[in-house]
Amino acid sequence: MDNLFYMNEALKEAYKAYDKKETPIGAIIVKDNKIIARAHNLTETLKDPTAHAEILAIREACKYLGGWRLNDCCLYVTMEPCIMCSGAIVNSRIKKIVIGTHHIKNSYSEGEYVFKENYYSYNNISCEFGVLEEECSMILKDFFRSLRK
Q1: How confident is the model at residue 109, as a pLDDT?
Q2: Is position 135 annotated as part of the catalytic site?
């Protein structure tokens, strides 16, 4: 399996969020070439500000593995994680993150991106951007455009 396959799986989760009128972000966690967790944003549905796709996927992966350390796991997420999710990623010991597109608001704030890039690097987490970037960006743009109608 490759990055395109897994990011497509994360995009499927983003579309589930879109259909629920949630911000369309999807995440999956892979260990040993097997998807062990999948999630999408549910902040509105659960009325929980922490119910981001990354947090929910981390919780599911921890249940699956029977512990909080997600050593040798890779997170695929359609949009760059926020600061809260970045902390959870580091604390869970995920080793690699593959990201579809940059955080929309961060396009105005290079400092936050640089902070997260340094934070991941300092914690020995490799990070790859731009896998299916156009598709990951488009679902977000479509979603926010539909809210403005």
Answers
A1: 57
A2: no
Q: Which of 13, 22, 54, 80 is catalytic?
A: 54
Question: What DSSP line would sit under the chain, residue for residue?
Answer: --HHHHHHHHHHHHHHHHHTTS---EEEEEETTEEEEEEE--HHHHT-TT--HHHHHHHHHHHHHTSS--TTEEEEEEE---HHHHHHHHHTT--EEEEEE--TGGGG-HHHHHHHHHHHHHTT-EEEE-TTHHHHHHHHHHHHHHHT-
Strands 96-101 and 73-79, sheet pairing: parallel
Residue pLDDT, tens place only, 18-56? 999 999 999 999 999 999 999 999 999 999 999 999 999
Compute CA distances 116 → 38, 78, 105, 122, 138, whole Å. Answer: 23, 16, 14, 10, 23
Query: What are the tens digits of pLDDT across the range 86-105?
Result: 999 999 999 999 999 987 65
Place of tokens 């479509």: 142
pLDDT confidence bin for 148, thresholds 50/70/90: confident
Q: How many CA atoms lie within 13 A of 106 on its CB side?
A: 16
